[in-house]
Amino acid sequence: MSGFKKLYEKAVAMDRVNVDTDQIIPKQFLKRIEKTGFGKFAFFDWRYLKNGEPNPEFELNYPENQGASILIANKNFGCGSSREHAPWALQDFGFSVVIAPSFADIFYQNCLKNGMLPIQLPTAEVEYLLKEAQNQPYFLHINLEEEKVEDDQGFTATFTIHPYWKKMLTNGWDEIEITIQYSDKIADYEKSVTQN
Amino acid sequence: MGKSIIDKIWEKHIVHREEGKPDLLYIDLHLVHEVTSPQAFSGLRMKNRKVRRPDRTFATMDHNVPTLNRYKIDDEIALNQMTTLEKNCLEFNIPLAGLDSPEQGIVHVIGPELGLTQPGKTIVCGDSHTSTHGAFGALAFGIGTSEVEHVLATQTLWQTRPKTLKIEVNGKLAYGVNAKDVILYILSKYGVNFGTGHVIEYTGDVIRNLSMEERLTICNMSIEGGARAGLICPDETTFSYLKGRKHAPENWDKAVQEWRSLVSDEDATYDKVITIDGHDIAPMVSWGTNPSMTAKVDGKIPATENYQDETDRRALHSALSYMGLKEGMAITDIAIQHVFIGSCTNSRIEDLRQAASVIKGQKVYPGVRALVVPGSQKVKKQAEEEGLDKLFVEAGFEWRDAGCSMCLSMNNDVVPSGEHCASTSNRNFEGRQGAGARTHLVSPSMAAAAALHGRFVDIRKMNVELQATT
To answer: What family does the entry list (chain A) (predicted)?
Structure first.
């Protein structure tokens, strides 16, 4: 996984609360055994009409919203099922950052493990972004190192991310590789528990 | 300062702690199923890694399995996923309760049933309803596929310490009210993200008096409130359930002695406390597209003016438009065409007994399709020994093999678009039971009652002798 540092990309709004992972990637697409290729199924039931045509009323189908890498979402984004297919689908769709006032815990973790950056900002700031992104093209600067989100109109917000995950994202490290360095400690723990 | 059971289990499982890092937590039990594991095994293979503790790993298949003609799987992609799990278990030496095993079933049903789930353990599975196992006083939570791979390779996870939330349910439950109503009531009152970042400890007289099956139902739906885990301190009910189970500890007395220390100290502190009066709870029915959109059976669907926030109002309108329902409508006016009794929330023997006690002698309402899907092949066998299958079939229910089935409809058990289903499962999300399907979450007795009447009825007015569960 390559490291994540900063980007300047188009941002689009999905102003809905409690978007669950069943919507992000419906169950019929979970039968595949690969990690790739889920983008075309992202938001399937919202995105396509019954006849298979794109739903023109779905926000990510608007012509002006095409080509975005940043998704601005609303509270409790990614709730429900633990399926990691959700970040796989969002990433394959083209998103590398999701901004929301709050995220479901498992979804948040799943993003980090895939080099995707979930940014939590206060509600008022997300509301501003949701509104601004109605006027496309709208671009945001994301700086992970400085933990900053900025637009070209002078908006600046700072976010926090656990230093461990920040390091992991910035360097694109393989987490298992790191943990394996603790193998002796794990073995010691196992020994101590068996002796008890 | 006193410690809660959550603190106690957490601290006992820390392998490594260091400033600026999450804790490296040891995982005692890793449950695996066919849907969220194939990419994890591929990851191991790519890096030439082994499974560190196959003896602490246990696999089954549940999400995809047919509940009719279980060996005839038409869906080639689903079949491939199941065959892949078989191959992976064989290659990495992991015990598997496959389709032909009498131990097969929903992963969160068989864990407790086989005695794998035990007090004080850390338990993970690539499934958000892993919170179920917390009913035994275990710290159990769902993980994504990357974490599945991490646990397979290292038997550990890097975890930031969660906040703690105590939910105290005091008093007593009225006739006709059960565990499912308790958790639906909590969600209806506090929403779908009050538990985010927290582990819940359920306590109070109502919880203490619940059977293991009922405790499992409550902990199961902790995730619907945003909490990755929810647990209940173990007690005599827990120990007597576990005694004699296949994987129960050999040194039983010593284990029970240890488990008895797994209680929260009286002066334990929590980040948040919620207190609920059991008398306030009624049989509940969900009307919307998330589990907090739930009302009492004698209540009404809310109206726009009940919400202050503009986004919440929009969520109400969008939910009602999806559900084909109207503001202010009485819950008992909602007609249903399907009934599903099953899922990791409500498919255990006691749930089936509860449903059966409602239907005795009566028939499923004309035009209603009603399914009973036992949570495991063992539950199925036991129910058949008790004659419950006959009772269901004579009433017009379909009696199926074990699996997740219509909870998420990954197999052929699907609710058609636009139709309503009274379901004992855990999620009423859009499309969950099929594209356009309209799900109403209820308890097993309320689902059975709806099956007989073709609409929701107040179980308290039915004059039935409900299966006593406590």
So the answer is: Belongs to the LeuD family. LeuD type 1 subfamily.
